[in-house]
Amino acid sequence: MMGSRRLIVPAGVWEHDLPVAQPCTVCGEPGQLAYTTNEHDELTAPFCSLRHWAKAADDRVEITGEMKPISPYTQEAAFQDHQWNAICKRWPERGAKGISQTKNAEGHDVLLYRDERGRLLAALSRTQEGRLNVMVDPDHRGKGIGRALVRAAGRQWPIDLSVQTMTPAGIRLVNHINPRKPS
Ligand SMILES: [Zn+2]
Q: How sure is the predictor about 46, in pLDDT bands with cuts at 50, 70 and 90?
């Protein structure tokens, strides 16, 4: 039986109420919540909280390689508003709420982040070499949306830091997801 569900912003995941409490996958306390990327995905393990789901998800992220130093030409705001508008034009104006996966014209994997109205707020693309490019709507930066997308990418693919072009924001993000990695 499917209980009620809601989109958790900015994590980009759906939180489902389970009919009965079961031990949380992380702490073993009674948990009555399940989390899925897409609204209608099959429910998986029970959790007591979003925090513990995130912990379990982050523990599964495989991060390898060493970060390259930031080039002096790397800008904190790596792209401009008009470039975000160009990204938006590539994708349907409305779509599945939360994080959905697709491919772009170059054949790269893409994760799209949409809000509770289905509006596109961020996109992550991944090249065949594993280079990630995260773009967040300039009006919605600093909310953790980019982090949610990188987390979602990490659940799907290993992340090799040595092939990434890091920005200061990117480094903060990686350190947050995997604080055990030296920066
Ligand atoms: Zn727990």
A: very high
120-126 vs 109-114, strand pairing mode? antiparallel
Q: Is the CB of residue 67 less than 8 Å from the CB of residue 174?
A: yes
Give distance in angstroms: CA of 25 to centre of ligand 1.
Answer: 6
> Which two tokens mark 91?
């994708």
Where along the chain do its domains lie? 5-60, 63-177
Please give the distance, rounded to the nearest whole angstrom, from the Cα atom of residue 56 to the centre of ligand 1.
10
Express each pLDDT in 142-152 by its tens digit. Answer: 898 988 999 89
Detail the DSSP E strand segments found in 9-152.
Answer: 13-23, 30-36, 63-64, 98-103, 109-114, 120-126, 132-136
Mean per-residue pLDDT for 80-86?
82
Q: Global pTM?
A: 0.85
- Give the pLDDT confidence score for residue 182 in this predicted structure: 47
The correct answer on CATH 2.60.40 for the domain covering 63-177 is no
State which residues have CB under 5 angstroms from ligand 1, the bound ion: 24, 26-27, 48, 52
Residue 43: φ, ψ to 5°: -75, 145
Distance 33 CA to ligand 1 centre (A): 10
CA 45 – ligand 1 centroid, Å: 11
Choose the weakest-confidence range: 23-27, 29-33, 37-41.
37-41
Dist CA 3 CA 161 (whole Å): 39
